[in-house]
Amino acid sequence: MDCQVIHSTEGRLRIRVPWIADNSEYTDKLNWLLESLNFVTSIRINPAARSLIVTYETHLVSETIAEAELLDRIQRFGNADGSTDLILPETKPLDRPQVNEWEQLGLPAIALGLAFVAAPLEIPPLIIGAAIASAAVPWFSRATESLVVNRQPNVDLLDSLWMTFHTLNGQFVAPSLKTALVGVRRTLRGMSGEEKERQFQQLLNGSQQLVWVERDGQEQQIAYQEVVAGDRVIVYPGDVIPVDGQILQGTALIDERHLTGEPQPVVATAGEDVCASARLLEGKLCIQAKRTGYNTRVGLAFQLLQAEPVYDTQIGTQQAEFAKSAVVPTIFLGASIFALTGTYGPAITPFQLDFGSGIQIAMPTAFLGALTAAARHGVYIRSGRVLELLAQVDTIVFDRTGTLTQGNAVVAVHTTDPSISPTEVLKLAATAEASLNHPVATAIVYAAETQGIQLLECETWDYFAGMGIACQIDGQEILVGGDRLLQQHHVDVSCLQPEIDASTDSYIYVAKNGQVIGAIFYTDFLRPESADIIATLQQLQIEIYVVTEDNPKVANAVATQLGMTPNCVHAHATSQNKAELVQALCHHGKTVAFVGDGINEAAALSFADVSISFASSSDIEAETADVVLLDRDLAGIVEAIALAKRAMEIVYQNAAIVIVPNLAVVTGGIFFGLNPIVNVVTNNFTAFLAEFFNSTRPLLRTRRTRETREQGAEELQVQRGDYQLPITNYQLPMMKKLAQVET
């Protein structure tokens, strides 16, 4: 994928460069190359977000030319592997001074000052008009560029006409005030964005450069960047927790306000999760790192802030299209008013209708605030468009295994004949399943390992999605899978029918050379929160469906446990069946979210409007799902939907805050001759209110309490302790993780 501009504002471009890597030499050269352009004032490169931000002088070059020149240089410079057709001189990067945002207000301030003292000092109108024209150059440039390059007028044309006509009419204060107030908003916006990025970067790096870790039984200090997942990190009072992870030892008082916004410190103890950027107030903790650096909650929020993936929303596109289409009719409206009334002031008043700046800026601000808030609370939402769709979701399809269940299956082996060893059945099944990452496969392989069973090698191996595996081991044809796989291979399974009829567990067969030699029964317990989450989603008028590869008996049992009707739980669901269900629901006008672990569900995830999964890799950004739950807790889905709906409410509120007062003062100007200064102040004040106050309100005020999580853990322990497998011919121990929880 080539580099591309993903966001642009006046004097500032954000460019996505996919091949930017953590290569300091390459970064320095690219930085020098772009800074050598005479119109560029500063470059900020973010390798983690694979993007760079360029600020440039608007009076030297138009946005179109700046964009074309920058993209051309980046493309010609080549990839981070050093391939380039440009010869760079042996010189150090230019040391440019830091841009002062307030300096850009110089011309608007001069124009406004001259407008106020024009009458008492009898300043020639030509001088004041020249000052206003200089301050309004950005509007004139954008309007001209749109007409010449894009062959269509834009909202800047309306603003340019409004300022020009008022200046020619001798009304200097209103147009000069407009340039000043818009400049102040732009400056504050830029400073606010840079301050947020600085705060996130500080939180991401922590206040200390060295981190204590326990390796080989010894505590040692290493650089923050050297900490990896799995390290045992030691945190002392006053330190900032540098990783997302689970507490192994210790109890402490921690301050999470920078992450969650909660002002009150909380007590954290062994077994609980903690997040990077929280500060340890009292106590000492030993934390096993799960995610580090840019994969932590604060790291993902920082990357979202850098990349600003909020300009692909449907509501934003519709607003932009409306703004474009309204320009010409507005000009005709002004001309019609002048033709009917012959009055100059009311005729140009409609030109000040805010079709663009206020709403176009306030909406992305709300979306970005919601995305970063979600990441800080453990839900990574990929873009503004995903957030928009999430607010519209009315149907959710859950894949049972690994999502509604814990993914830690308990297995038991049953053989068809006493002469057949359960160990042999388990060895063949584990050998066939060894290369899969499915929760059941993982449980079978782990069970074999705990028994000290040495796995064999597959000479041939074929995987049938949703059905099982056919392979050859030691020259023997082995089948490991469900009823349909064995039926396709014409293998009789009736010998195990009595045991299967008596059980409500899931199972897979193991067949050798066309004969069933045993079955592995497994139970993957439901998550403690599954039934409550399903009930909560149903209360929100969201339709729920569950798909499972298990037989109808297991599916009915699942429906009963979840409090659902059996017709909403689909048994014997292959990957194709799951995709077909999602397609059918979308075809009937539903906005569908699919929740799965990504195994056997790739098609269903791709067909769904919103795909949701748990974080499973160290690189969260590499996950393919639209929404990634950083904590393996389904409550994140409810929080994500609530946050999305709240964010959309704020977007609509922002539109009302800007549009309603603006229409009122424009109407007053047309019919009652309202002073244009009132129009300018109202326009900018409402835009400021929507952008800096309404869009930045906290979106998540609640958090799951420690007591709730502890209660869920106790219920889980009781559930596991009371459970007895109905078939106990050969019982394997639970997986290590379950044993650790129970002990």
Please provide a written account of the structure.
By secondary structure, the chain is α+β, with helices and mostly antiparallel strands. Among the domains are: 76 residues, Gyrase A, domain 2 (2-Layer Sandwich), CATH 3.30.1360.40; 107 residues, no CATH class; 64 residues, Calcium-transporting ATPase, cytoplasmic transduction domain A; 121 residues, Calcium-transporting ATPase, cytoplasmic domain N (3-Layer(aba) Sandwich). Helix content is 47%, strand content 19%. It contains 26 helices and 27 strands. A seven-stranded mixed beta sheet has the order 14-26-25-24-15-22-23, sandwiched between helices. The protein is elongated. The two termini are 51 Å apart.
